[in-house]
Amino acid sequence: MPNVVKGSKQERMVVVPYRPVRRLILLALSFLLVIATALGGFVYAYYQTALRYGLRDADQLSLAQQVEKLEAENLSLSRQVTVLDRSNAMDRKVAEDMQGAVGSLRNRVAKLEQDIVFYRSVISGDGDDTGLTISNWEIAPTNDADRYRYKLTLRQQDADGDTFLIGHVNMNLVGRKDEEITFLSIRDISSDQEENDIKLRFKFFQIIEGELILPFGFIPERIQIIGVEKSPIQKSLDQSFDWVLPE
Asked: Is the pTM of this model over 0.70?
């Protein structure tokens, strides 16, 4: 029996069987439990994160679809606005064209009425003179600088409607260039006339018209018209008109 100090507190000894395998098993189970707990926490955290981001992606997809839908509606509305603008522009253009056409027709009718009055006066042959007569002279500017339209109307006074007046007429533009008086034949300044002596052959009237171009530095003053009638009577005339443009 072991030595025991008298009066000291004694503890009971327990004898435990020595089992090393069981101890290892418990240690391994504890280790596996720790690993399982860690994996469970990781899986849970991953699931929550995936769920949160999955919802965010779904929201972004929904927003993207809404944006795409709005862009499509905006494009459709823009096209409708463009169509309406073009339609309004076409309506305005048609209205302007119609107004222009009506105005042009009115001007044309007025011009025809003036021509009818003029031709009636020519055919009527009112006047004291007989034979070749200058009925009218006109000069008007064009859109081009130094280019003008001219129109000379000659008539046969007391025409009987059966007899032709035969002769010729010369037209000369008189003006100044470098302070000197200069005469220019109509053939030299108008491509519409090929000869200086413009042939005349008519019963009632004849119109000579075209365009002329003023040479550089030339200042026109008057137009000189010299006519010669050979038949049915012999007659000559020499008449000048000032260079006056219509207002």
From this structure: no
